[in-house]
Amino acid sequence: MSVTKQRDALQLLELMGSFPWYVEKFIEHKKTKKNSPSTLLGYLRDITFFFRWMMTEGLTPASEMKDIPLQDLNDLKKETVESYILYLQESHLYERAALLTNPTRSAKKEYSDRTISRKISSLKSLFHYLAALAEDENGESYLTRNVLAKIEIEMVELTPLARANAIRAKILIDDEIYQFVDFVYNGYLSHCHTVKKQQFHLQNRDRDTAIIALILSGGFRVSEIVSLDLSDIVMEKNQLKMVRKGKKEDAPFFSDWGKEYLGRYLQQRDKYLPSSQEDAVFLAVSPTNPNGHRIEVRSVQKLVKKYAKAFGIPDLSVHKLRHSFATQFLRLNPDPHQLQAQLGHSKIETTMQYAHVLEDALGKAVNRTT
Fold first, then answer.
1. Distance (Å, rounded) from C-alpha 5 to C-alpha 289?
2. Which of 25, 31, 293, 319 is catalytic?
3. Is 293 an active-site residue?
4. Where would I find the Core-binding (CB) domain in this sequence (predicted)?
5. 201 has catalytic annotation
6. Mind listing the pLDDT tens digit for each residue in 58-96?
7. Which domains occur in the chain, in start order?
8. pTM for this one?
């Protein structure tokens, strides 16, 4: 199990005490289906939001989530669930303050249709389990009626070309890849307007540049990069040993270009003062832990967004770096099966979306036809 999954599994155990017994049964059922800890945490986040809304709206006498009786779910009406959907659509207007312990700036952002559909889908999964799959000691279902079965979710199906167009504006193409990495190392310093920010950037720029260059040179997931140990790097072969989605062991490659940045960082790694037992490749320090320890996924996501905003592509995210590599790979190596192996995709259809990203290539192909 990767470090990220171990951490998520631990968090899952810590959170379960806050939920009613029937939610715990639901999570145990999902575990038998080999859902990852991060997926299960996603279910709990969506269920938490709904349960807090129920308590705020007076739909349950419980003052804590763990005390919400099963009967309260059984008594829900279709109109009530539709009211919840309306709340999701408008909750940004109230910064979701009633349901969030510590609202952040994102609380002011409107939920996308996709996010709302996911939240309702999580509830549909819970209610389906309670009404159709689970049974008590008498063989009876936990719920006698499933109100979520009456709720329709309208998902807009995008064609591969439409998905590709959505990706195109948020990725790096050709020279932008090298320009962005150079900006992280050399250009961002001019955006640091205080001595403290300058010192922080100089302390971490070798690490940050190596992380970004490595993702761009091999199309890795951020969780895969964060979970790397020193023993996972096979420098002479430009390979990384890792466990990918579905618990698949793999050893994908990275380019010589990315290798240069990785090597530069590894020469500087000791300045984070890690303990002799710390084997993580990419390290961070904090006020509460000044010795170098494994950097977190969220930290990498935030640093990529910080650099992307200053670079002028605010929609660029750490996952879009993976998209950038995949698009560039197919631009220069038109073999989707090779890319499928490199990215660790189970289905070639997932890989093929990148074949449509570059509209110019498709347009030229159409022109050549007639």
1. 22
2. 319
3. no
4. 17-131
5. no
6. 999 998 999 999 999 999 999 999 999 988 888 777 666
7. 3-156 (no CATH), 162-369 (1.10.443.10)
8. 0.68
